[in-house]
Specification:
Chain A: Belongs to the TRM112 family. Chain A: Pfam families: Trm112p (PF03966). Chain A: It is found in: Cytoplasm, Perinuclear region; Nucleus, Nucleoplasm. Chain A: Its main location: cytoplasm. The structure holds 2 protein chains of 2 kinds. Chain A has 4 helices and 4 strands; from the N terminus they run αβαααβββ. By secondary structure, chain A is of the alpha+beta class. Chain A has one domain: Single Sheet (N-terminal domain of TfIIb). The two termini of chain A are 26 Å apart. Chain B is elongated. In chain B, 39% of the residues lie in helices and 24% in strands. By secondary structure, chain B is of the alpha/beta class. In chain B, strands 2-1-3-7-6-4-5 form a 7-stranded mixed β-sheet. In chain B, β9, α11 and β10 form a beta-alpha-beta unit. Chain B has 2 domains: 182 residues, VC0802-like; 256 residues, Rossmann fold, CATH 3.40.50.150. The chains are: A alpha+beta, B alpha/beta. At the A-B interface, α2 and β4 of A face β10 of B.
């Protein structure tokens, strides 16, 4: 699971959880793979993500680097910045570990890069 | 040699799903094209196979008494055998060298070896085999062996080519049915629909591609298949529209294993992410998805019809939640479930209170819908008014007049009949929490999947 994906996930499917975002990450295996850099794509994806949540997630697994926590309004023109964002969004991948619901502490295991977000029957109930 | 052919017109035909014909049939369609364009045709994602056309005729009217004689006469009248053979030969060379993808999968024929080339160049040594596909009343007039044998003898007599059932140079494809009589030389040994990047087949690759082609995937779109199985839909999408983000969810471990093995075969496997999740509880933020493409269970193989009736309302409701306004949805389902889907996306229903044990959920809602907006319950006594209701339902929910399709054996109508006199149902509905879903049907196309009558429905939120 990449951090871009993490930025879209929520645990609000659990009964009683309202926001469920962002999920905390407890990673035991992190893999960094090189992915082709496409500045247009990254700029547009940045507009879709919740930036503070991305920074928080990256920091929690030690991959924030010197990425600014505040988004510069002119970030689209800053290639250096886009490259760093690219790295955090697409190159850092949680292979093994857990995602943790910020409200209930419910843990969702991540195995071989695939998070298991299935609930038990008694947890369902919107 | 190559250039000569590029400037020549070839008749080819594609066998398979035809997008430009709204997939009305899985049949054959003639097409003329320049040989240069032929190279491009080989990349057609929605077709099963590509042929050099030798003969394409409609409604020949074979008779039980004279059919075999008629077919022999037809073969005799065709004079383009060697012309078409030349086109076929040249095409064999040009696409084999240019397109490594097509030759990569299990294609162990050694067409590039000098010996085989020589064999191809010399017409005197042409060997062939007839592959016959017969269907309909016409096809059944004679056995496959009778058809094949007659055709084989006639072709050999006309052309001087030699029949060879085991290892022919040329396969002659013949299709006989009540509408067409078609002869063609397959341009590729392996059907176009076979992809190098799909190891585990879920939904047929051609159909998957068509679903993807209908939802205008733009760069950076977030595309979700919440019941992805082996992820064939996403594989097709990623291959043709590489600059989007793809998410495949499935409830089953074993399907996700297949999906991740498939994913590894893509040149860019980074843009597909897999997750284990239930379509009834999608762990995505509301409004975060641009496109949903899904082939939900039909209630035949993966779950019972009863399960489907409780699953669909929950599924549509969750899809609606995660989809952003203006987002697109493409669903492939069976004709029997079309009305259910159209109803679910057309407005008010309250999935939260659904009694899972009851198979009358949908019906209750339908009644409510009917009672409030179209008919009074008293109007619903006859079969005729049910059909009428259908029409209105569809028009009301979509703003489009859609064809009524196949209405027989429609389970929810029977249930409807049972429940409509139950006064409890409508009052209960009113108490339920109402979730407004209002998708606009953009397109609805009929598709025959084997023996299954299916529909592709395209919506926008």
């Amino acid at each position: 699971m990449k951090l871009l994906t993490h930025n879209m996930l929520t645990s609000n499917i659990i009964k009683g959880v309202t926001k469920g975002f962002p999920l905390q990450i407890a990673a035991t295996d992190i893999k960094v793979t090189e992915v082709d850099f496409n500045p247009d794509f990254i700029s547009r994806m940045i507009s879709k993500v919740e930036w503070p949540a991305l920074c928080e997630a990256a920091e929690s697994i030690g991959h924030l680097g010197d990425l600014p926590k505040e988004l510069d309004p002119d970030y689209e023109k800053n290639e250096e910045f886009l490259k760093k964002a690219h790295h955090v969004l697409l190159e850092v991948e949680i292979k093994e570990g857990e995602l943790i619901c910020p409200e209930t502490g419910r843990k969702f295991p991540v195995t071989n890069g695939i998070p298991n977000m299935l609930l038990n029957e008694d947890e369902v109930g919107k | 040699m190559h250039e000569n052919v590029n400037s020549r017109e070839l008749a080819v035909f594609l066998h398979g799903w035809q997008r430009n014909r709204a997939f009305s049939s899985r049949g054959t369609e003639g097409k003329r094209c320049n040989a240069g364009k032929c190279e491009k045709l080989i990349d057609t994602r929605s077709a099963e196979r590509l042929f050099i056309q030798v003969c394409f005729q409609n409604n020949i009217g074979f008779t039980r008494r004279k059919g075999l004689h008629q077919v022999s006469e037809l073969i005799k009248q065709i004079n383009s055998w060697s012309d078409n053979l030349n086109s076929w030969k040249i095409f064999q060379f040009s696409h084999k060298t240019g397109d490594s993808e097509k030759t990569a999968i299990g294609n162990n024929d050694d067409d590039h070896t000098p010996a085989k080339r020589q064999k191809l160049d010399s017409e005197s040594q042409v060997t062939f085999r007839v592959s016959c596909k017969c269907s309909g009343n016409t096809g059944r007039m004679f056995s496959l062996q009778q058809w094949s044998k007659t055709l084989g003898i006639a072709v050999a007599k006309k052309t001087g080519w030699k029949a060879n059932l085991k290892d022919p140079m040329l396969e002659i494809y013949v299709q006989i049915n009540d509408v067409h009589f078609v002869i063609g030389f397959p341009v590729t040994k392996i059907p176009l629909s076979k992809r190098t990047y799909i190891k585990h087949i879920g939904l047929r690759s051609t159909v998957s591609w068509i679903l993807c082609s209908l939802c205008d995937i733009s760069p950076c779109d977030v595309v979700l298949d919440p019941m992805c199985g082996a992820a064939t839909i996403l594989m097709e999408a990623q291959h043709s529209w590489p600059h989007a983000r793809y998410y495949g969810f499935d409830i089953s471990d074993s399907q996700l294993v297949k999906a991740s093995e498939n994913k590894q075969l893509l040149p860019d496997s980074n843009s597909i992410e897999l997750l284990q999740a239930d379509v009834r509880q999608l762990p995505m933020k509301s409004g975060s998805v641009d496109v949903i493409i899904c082939d939900p269970p039909f209630g035949y193989k993966h779950c019972s019809p009863k399960t489907v009736e409780t699953l669909y309302p929950l599924m549509i409701s969750e899809m609606n939640r995660v989809l952003k306004p203006g987002g697109r949805v493409v669903l492939l389902t069976v004709t029997d479930l079309k009305d259910l889907v159209l109803h679910l996306v057309s407005g008010q229903h309250a999935h939260q209170e659904i009694d899972v044990e009851s198979n009358q959920v949908v019906i209750r809602q339908e009644k409510k819908y009917v009672g409030q907006e179209i008919h009074t319950p008293a109007d619903l006594g006859t079969v005729n008014s049910e059909v009428e209701l259908d029409k209105r339902l569809e028009v009301a929910s979509t703003g489009h007049a859609v064809d009524l399709g196949n209405k027989n054996g429609n389970a929810e109508h029977k249930n409807f009949e049972n429940s409509k006199n139950d006064p409890r149902s409508s009052s209960k509905c009113v108490e339920e929490e109402v979730v407004h879903i209002s998708w606009v049907l953009q397109q609805c196309s009929y598709l025959k999947l084997g023996e299954t009558h299916a529909q592709i429905m395209v919506f926008t939120k």
